[in-house]
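User: Hi! I'm working on a homework problem where we have to compare a predicted structure to a textbook description. Could you give me the structure for the chain below?
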Amino acid sequence: MGAVNSVMTFFGFGSAEPQKVEASAKPRPAASRPRRGSEMSEIITLEPQTYADGKEVAFHYRQGVPVIVNIGGMSEADAKRMLDFMLGLKEALEGQIRRVTPKVFLLSPSHVEVNDGEAEATDADNLLD
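Assistant: Happy to help. Predicted structure tokens:
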């Protein structure tokens, strides 16, 4: 019966005894926070080959690092999906996306100001034209 109780307890169906919570539990480490403008000292350049490589774009962008993304090596379908994904990142974190060349885009966080004399492009169809 002890093994059955152990398995049931492991899956959360165990005994009716109250679980003891240790008051001196160590706090979890804080998640890394986006960088402030004064802390920014880099720009990441990425050349994703598939849509799955978008995780790396998102990782750096969420850290507050501007990302230059060259989608020239991707299939047309993956390039459109990647661009839609980057537009979602931009909206979620209130940043900017700029076309540098027909297949290269700059994804910059809200604390980074980009002055290029053009209005911000936000429509995926306009960006891929």
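For your comparison, note the following. The longest strand covers residues 96-101. The CA atoms of residues 71 and 79 lie 6 Å apart. Good luck with the assignment!
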